[in-house]
Design a protein that fits this description.
The complex is a heterodimer of chains A (367) and B (512). Chain A is of the alpha/beta class. Chain A folds into 2 domains: 33-218, Thiamin diphosphate (ThDP)-binding fold, Pyr/PP domains (Rossmann fold, 3-Layer(aba) Sandwich), CATH 3.40.50; 230-357, Rossmann fold, CATH 3.40.50. Helices cover 42% and strands 15% of the residues of chain A. Chain A has 14 helices and 14 strands. In chain A, the strands form 3 sheets. In chain A, strands 3-2-4-5-7-6-12 form a 7-stranded mixed beta sheet, sandwiched between helices. A 5-stranded mixed beta sheet of chain A has the order 9-11-10-13-14, sandwiched between helices. In chain A, helix 4 packs parallel to helix 5. Chain B folds into 3 domains: 2-103, no CATH class; 142-149 and 164-431, 3-Layer(aba) Sandwich (Rossmann fold); 473-505. Chain B has helices at 2-21, 73-79, 142-167, 181-189, 204-210, 214-222, 255-268, 313-324, 343-346, 353-359, 371-388, 416-424, 428-438, 444-467, 486-501, and strands spanning 93-97, 100-104, 196-198, 275-280, 328-334, 337-338, 341-342, 362-367, 392-397. A 5-stranded parallel beta sheet of chain B has the order 3-4-5-9-8, sandwiched between helices. A two-stranded antiparallel sheet of chain B has the order 1-2. Chain B has a two-stranded antiparallel sheet with strand order 6-7. In chain B, strand 1 (93-97) and strand 2 (100-104) form a beta hairpin. In chain B, helix 7 (255-268) runs parallel beside helix 8 (313-324). The longest helix of chain B is centred in the N-terminal third of the chain and has 26 residues, at 142-167. The chains are: A alpha/beta (367), B alpha/beta (512). At the A-B interface, helix 4, helix 5 and helix 6 of A face helix 7 and helix 8 of B.
Chain lengths: 367, 512
């Protein structure tokens, strides 16, 4: 009898501490952390191991272990036939990659930064994106173009542009932009496995950031679906859409807004093309307010597309005009203070959310 | 001061003369480098027999080095010691630099921008189609020769009739290969079905040789339901996976690095096949972002392309193919004109063949209007590409008899009698016919029969193609991706609803 009571008491005490334990458990995999860099590296490693057709090429990817060390250890493991150091000819190696993909190999072409991809953009658009269509399915292009995109720190105008809207406007391409390690690993695996050309835009400043990862994530079959956004934070008052680095800013803004009683829903787009319009729409129909956040230039940007799509689908649900937070409409300046002012900051998102909730000045007096 | 000037110019003159005598630039490149010819970079020393396997147009070729060597630059350099022997008649000593050992000289001499003589052109038949005495050439059987000739005639007639169809407004655009029939057919005949073709756009004869029917050509030009391209491209943008002929794409020269990539894939797969990529003289100037728009006024090109191929597809394609030791044949059709840009405005080098050496690529210049010469050169090139796993550059000299395309009137920028001369006196089809006939393999009767038959088939093909239904609406949305994404499915649904609601706004002859 004592034993039973003891057991009951034990069970009771267990129930009391269970919530804490289970909270720990959802973060228990927080015991496992991984940087975005490691996540990308592991994705490349596993996909190359699983499929001998996958190979990597780009400047410094081999002997230098990758300009940002994303391909560390791969040359040693797979040899120079599968990890190719290329000369400084973006147009050339993008073209070669496309040719290899036409034949049936699965190249992963790295641009040291997507700013340099402009020298290869004809191959990305005219040779890769459009080929399957123009050849009526005879020439498919299972290629991935990846590399850092957007602003880094103190690298100036020609190394800081965001190419999300450029590539996302082109039919035939898929455009993915990871934020966390989970995104990076899952989306890169999906991109490599996808038979269509994928532009995979990473962020240099995120490479070193650590994120908690689950056991499922560590499995080699882990893969995220292309075209699905992730709701990073559920809320009910205002929807904030973001991608890449801006997701972190949006989450921080949400924490600040919570203190002021505004419950923000943060959507991590993950996939810019195809855009997950249904997730965004469903969120608007719940919150009735939308802020789009992006790092790139405002005109013809991703925010403009999201705004148009929301107006098309859920206009009646909007209680406030849609606002876009974007980078300044200037080539990125170098000086640290100017650079800071040219890129969206957490405070910009907070103020915009408050405006949408009519908690501050009207739109015209934006500060 | 004056003395110094005189002495140095004399010295320079001597050196240039010495070098050209020793076959510096402008020497004929042997297909089989059995001769001991060397370049002035060696200081005119002959290369000993044991090192002949290293002998290539460039003395420091890496062709026989294993892949890993590229990671050990100074180690690789030491390998070349053996043939930079010191039995010299000059005061040349050698220096060690990344990239290998090089001898040095105390005489400051600039390599001349051109050699005294141009690279000679390989030909087998004279202008009348007679075999030139003592020529190297690969014999062809009667069967192959007759097939080659018949296809050249078919190509000629196909061009004429489709061109006329465009003029009559039945198709929107056409581009002829007039004057380049020998290049088209003879190069195709020298390859196997497994060799992969990346064309520019003036090589439909290759597809014709491989068995694409006249009806299939017509269907693509009319963009109808039977078109393998599902009506998505302009006329002449043929493509056929079955025939290993990659779909033609308008931007110039993009196929060159792609060819290197495909050849690399063949190499990785250990296939006994090669890639053949065609390019024109204008395309060799290509910087990748330049695209020719066929419908933009040709006057834009009157002052020529900038000749900056340092970061462009031609440069990248050839450079990479050489570095990767990829089995690809780069076939340049130097036909004298890039729309209205004459070759003298396109580059200042001795044509394209000399550029091969700049990349470490074995190259040859051939008479593009001589079917037998083209056939022999391509056969040899293929063997080298496949067996030695190396790229080859072939420059075929020819003349573009037709206008650039139906959007062009070349009499605006060149003399009519020049065109007529090449069309008649230097016609590759007539020339080959004379040779085939002289072998007793062809007759006037067969000629008339063939021409009438092909013409009849073409006219029928056009009639059929014209009447064939256009592709259905669903073909507009497929193949953008492997599987249509939800947004496209939505757009298609929306379009169909709109059509059904407003049938009068949409013509009824478009199948859904």
């Amino acid at each position: 009898m004592f034993g039973v009571v003891k057991q009951k008491m034990l069970r009771l005490s267990l129930t009391q501490i269970r919530p804490a334990v289970s909270a720990l458990r959802s973060y228990s995999s927080a015991a496992k952390q991984m940087t975005v860099r490691e996540a990308l590296n592991s994705a490349l490693d596993e996909e190359m191991s699983a499929d001998p057709k996958v190979f990597l090429m780009g400047e410094e990817v081999g002997e230098y272990q990758g300009a940002y060390k994303i391909s560390k250890g791969l040359l040693e493991k797979y040899g120079p036939e599968r990890v190719l150091d290329t000369p400084i000819t973006e147009a050339g190696f993008a073209g070669i990659g496309v040719g290899a993909a036409y034949y049936g190999l699965k190249p992963v072409v790295e641009f040291m930064t997507f700013n340099f991809s402009m020298q290869a953009i004809d191959h990305i658009i005219n040779s890769a994106a459009k080929s399957n269509y123009m050849s009526a399915g005879q020439m498919s292009v299972p290629i991935v173009f990846r590399g850092p995109n957007g602003a880094a720190a103190g690298v100036g105008a020609q190394h800081s542009q965001c190419y999300a809207s450029w590539y996302a406007s082109c039919p035939g391409l898929k455009v993915l932009m990871p934020y966390s390690s989970e995104d990076a690993r899952g989306l890169l695996k999906a991109a490599i496995r996808d038979p269509d050309p994928v532009v995979f835009l990473e962020n240099e400043l995120l490479y070193g950031e650590s994120f908690p990862v689950s056991d499922e994530f560590l499995d080699s079959s882990f893969c995220l679906p292309i075209g699905k956004a992730k709701i990073e934070r559920v809320g009910k008052d205002v929807t904030i859409t973001a991608f890449s680095k801006m997701v972190g800013h949006a989450l921080k803004a949400a924490e600040i807004l919570e203190k002021d009683g505004i419950d923000a829903e943060v959507i991590n787009l993950r996939s810019i093309r195809p855009l997950d319009r249904s997730t965004i729409s469903a969120s608007i129909r719940k919150t009735n307010r939308l802020i789009t956040v992006e790092e790139g230039f405002p005109q013809h940007g991703v925010g403009a597309e999201i705004c148009a799509s929301v107006v098309e689908e859920s206009f009646a649900y909007l209680d406030a005009p849609v606002e876009r937070i974007a980078g300044a409409d200037v080539p990125m300046p170098y000086a640290a203070n100017l650079e800071r002012m040219a890129v969206p900051q957490v405070e910009d998102i907070v103020r915009a959310a408050k405006r949408a909730c009519y908690r501050s000045e009207p739109l015209a007096a934006v500060a | 001061m004056a003395n110094w000037g005189r002495i140095s110019s004399r010295t320079i003159g001597n050196h240039i003369r010495k070098r050209t005598n020793q076959g510096f630039i402008g020497s004929t490149v042997d297909i089989n480098p059995s001769s001991g010819s060397s370049s002035a970079l060696n200081g005119g020393r002959s290369v000993s027999d044991q090192n002949r396997r290293y002998l290539n147009p460039l003395p420091w070729s890496r062709a026989t080095l294993s892949w890993f060597q590229r990671f050990k630059s100074t180690v690789a350099a030491k390998q070349h010691d053996s043939f930079l022997s010191s039995d010299s008649d000059d005061d040349h000593l050698s220096l060690d630099f990344p990239g290998g050992k090089v001898s040095y000289t105390c005489d400051m001499n600039f390599i001349s921008e051109s050699s005294q003589a141009r690279v000679p052109c390989y030909r087998v038949l004279d202008d009348d189609g007679e075999l030139i005495k003592d020529c190297d050439f690969q014999q062809v059987s009667k069967e192959v020769a007759v097939k080659m000739y018949s296809k050249m005639v078919s190509l000629q007639i196909m061009d004429t009739i489709f061109y006329e169809a465009q003029r009559q407004g039945r198709i929107s655009f056409y581009l002829t290969s007039a004057g380049e029939e020998a290049i088209n057919i003879a190069s195709a005949a020298a390859l196997t079905e497994q060799d992969i073709i990346l064309p520019q756009y003036r090589e439909p004869g290759v597809l014709l040789w491989r068995g694409f029917t006249l009806q299939e050509f017509a269907d693509q030009c009319f963009g109808n339901k039977a078109d393998y391209g599902k009506g998505r491209q302009m006329p002449i943008h043929y493509g056929s996976k079955e025939h290993n002929f990659f779909t033609i794409s308008s931007p110039i020269a993009t196929q060159l690095p792609q060819a290197a990539g495909i050849a690399y894939s063949l190499k990785m797969d250990n296939k006994k096949a090669c890639v053949v990529s065609y390019i024109g003289d204008g395309g060799t100037s290509e910087v990748s972002t330049l695209t020719i728009s066929y419908f933009i006024c040709l006057l834009q090109f009157a002052h020529g392309y900038p000749n900056c191929f340092l970061q462009g597809d031609f440069h990248a394609g050839l450079n990479f193919a050489a570095v990767m030791e990829a089995p690809v044949i780069f076939f340049c059709r130097n036909n004298g004109w890039a729309i209205s840009t004459n070759v003298s405005e396109q580059f200042r080098s001795d044509g394209i063949v000399v550029k091969g050496r700049a990349y470490g690529i074995r190259s040859i210049r051939v008479d593009g209007n001589d079917a037998l010469a083209v056939y022999t050169a391509v056969s040899a090139a293929r063997e080298m590409a496949v067996n030695e796993q190396r790229p080859i550059l072939i420059e075929a000299l020819t003349y573009r008899v037709g206008h650039h395309s139906t959007s062009d009137d070349s009499t605006k920028y060149r003399q009519l009698d020049e065109i007529v001369y090449w069309k008649n006196a230097r016609n590759p089809v007539n020339r080959f016919r004379n040779w085939v006939q002289s072998n007793g393999w062809w007759s006037e009767q067969e000629e008339t029969q063939l021409r009438n038959s092909v013409r009849k088939q073409l006219l029928e093909a056009i009639q059929v193609a014209e009447k064939t239904e256009k592709p259905p609406l669903s073909d507009m949305f497929t193949d953008v991706y492997d599987y249509p994404p939800p947004n496209l499915e939505e757009q298609e649904k929306h379009l169909r609803e709109t059509i059904s609601r407003h049938p009068t706004d949409y013509s009824s002859d478009i199948p859904l």
